[in-house]
Amino acid sequence: MTAVTQHLLAGLRERALQATRPETLGRVSQLLGLQLQVTGLRAAVGDLLEILGDRPVLAEVAASSAAGLTCLPLGETRGIQVGALVRHTGGPLRIRVGEELAGRVLDGLGRPIDGGPSLDGLTEVSVDHDAPDAMRRPRIDTQLALGVRALDALVPCGRGQRLGIMAGSGVGKSSLLSMIARGTDAEVSVIALIGERGREVREFLENDLGPEGLARSVVVVATSDAPPVERLRAAFVATRIAESFRDRGRHVVLMMDSLTRIAMAQREIGLSAGEPPATRGYPPSVFSLLPRLLERAGTAPAGSITGLYTVLVEGDDLQDPVGDTARSILDGHVVLSRRLATSGHFPSIDVLESISRVTSAVTDADQQSDAVRLRRMLAAHRNVRELVEIGAYVSGSDPDADAAIARTGRIDDFLRQGMSESTPLDQTWSALRDLVAS
Predict the structure, then answer these.
(1) How many whole angstroms separate alpha carbon 372 and alpha carbon 212?
(2) In sequence order, which ranges of 110-216 are alpha helices (DSSP H)?
(3) Where are the alpha helices (DSSP H) in 173-320?
(4) CA-based R_g, the chain, Å
(5) CA 435, CA 438: separation in Å to the nearest integer?
(6) Which of 48, 274, 302, 409 makes an SS bond possible with 89, Cβ 3.0 to 4.6 Å?
(7) Which residues contact 86 (CB under 8 A, 6 or more apart)?
């Protein structure tokens, strides 16, 4: 008997033993709020269980004690009763990854929802993954073109950087992401829409993103009515998909809208599990979750993930807990202004309040000088704006303000940009040089 035949027989024998091995089933012992208790099963925290019935429901183990398992359902619990049978799926959530995901739309658990072909032929991986080792991360030294002039010139983004987009509701975060998805020179875009209105999903895909943007993107969707565990897992599913492309040596842009709704989902889960509320009702687990999620993006020996995370600040307060924590972890932030949005200035980027922490590493001295010159003009104009509006400003009082007033129309044209307009990086820097030249 050859070695190959022995190997095949061993595999057949193992599969036969697994098929005949009796399966241990547990039972639902209690349903309370967002959680349910399961007895009669052994499982680790993070494992997936399946509640059997006419409509099986997945649940994730959140806590374990001598009394049983505390689980959080990943679907609608309507119809589940005490005594329902529960089986162990064999481990934590696993998803399919591969190049064929480009152009696909998935739910928060990585399952296709666009009516396309099955993903069964793709590689299956666990959603859990370690962040790149700090000492093995290549330094960020190359600018990534986003196609938006205000960002590329004044808040330059490096390949592998993590950037926050901070704004209140209705100020244009999703629209800015769609512009970046169409205009970036990254090879692949992974877009996570978490906690969005169901009505907005098709509008974003068909109008904002468009066929061209979707063709090189993977979109993960968990709408606002999805269970909190699915909304939370959607963030890790999108990150794991981006990591799979990075592991193949690709340069990926990961866009997540929004980090605040991920924190809200974890708040629901934490409070339901018995955690004490802390800052503005957020339990401590929220503030340990954010670095675990955000640190997984960035550079790696084989590729990079440039992370763009929107933060929905409460009441336009940039000091809210989630926004403050995100800023302390990320490599820069972009602030969107409601004042600019209501005045018809799009994209509504407040460049004076926005900053990139890798500017000096991805731009040369001339580019930095031009950007600083424009920032000084904008700051000087902001300081004398009221005097100019009432006619009390005296020309010659501030050379930077004089330069800004003389170029007001050209500056506005540079900072404004249409939704369907994308500007190459070299044209952006050339236009900035012409704008600030004396």
Answers:
(1) 35
(2) 149-154, 173-183, 198-203, 210-215
(3) 173-183, 198-203, 210-215, 228-247, 259-272, 284-294
(4) 25
(5) 8
(6) 48
(7) 25, 26, 27, 28, 38, 40, 41, 49, 50, 51, 52, 59
> How far is the C-alpha of 367 from the C-alpha of 359, rounded, in Å?
10
Threshold 0.85, pTM exceeds: yes
- The mean pLDDT value of the chain amounts to 88
The pLDDT tens digits for 381-411 are 888 888 877 888 788 888 888 898 889 899 9
Question: What is the end-to-end Cα distance of the chain in Å, rounded?
Answer: 86
Give start and end residues of each alpha helix (H) in 251-358: 259-272, 284-294, 321-329, 338-342
Amino acid identity, residue 36?
Answer: L
> Which phi and psi angles does 230 have, rounded to 5°?
-65, -40
CA distance 40 to 334: 50
- Is the backbone peptide bond immediately before 347 cis, with ω within 30 degrees of 0? yes
- Model pLDDT for residues 203-223, shown as the tens digit of each residue: 888 887 888 888 889 999 999
User: Helices in 129-205 by DSSP H: which ranges?
Assistant: 149-154, 173-183, 198-203
> What distance in Å separates the CA atoms of residue 225 and residue 196, rounded to the nearest whole number?
9
Q: Which secondary structure element, helix H or strand E, spans residue 162, and what is its range?
A: strand 162-167
Name 286's Cβ contacts closer than 8 Å, sequence gap at least 6: 263, 266, 267, 270, 321, 322
**Integer Cα distance of 417 and 299 in angstroms:** 30
Nearest to 239 by CA among 223, 258, 220: 220
Chain position carrying tokens 């980090």: 259
Residue 69 φ/ψ, nearest 5 degrees: -110, 135
In angstroms, the CA 184 to CA 190 distance is 12
Which pair of tokens denotes residue 245? 């492309």
Least Cα distance to 217 among 176, 255, 172 occurs for 255
* 143-196: pLDDT as tens digits: 999 999 999 999 999 999 999 999 888 888 888 988 888 888 888 999 999 988
Cis peptide before 422 (omega within 30 of 0): no
94, β-bridge pairs: 126
User: What whole-number distance in Å separates Cα of residue 384 and Cα of residue 393?
Assistant: 7
Q: What was the pLDDT predicted at 349?
A: 94
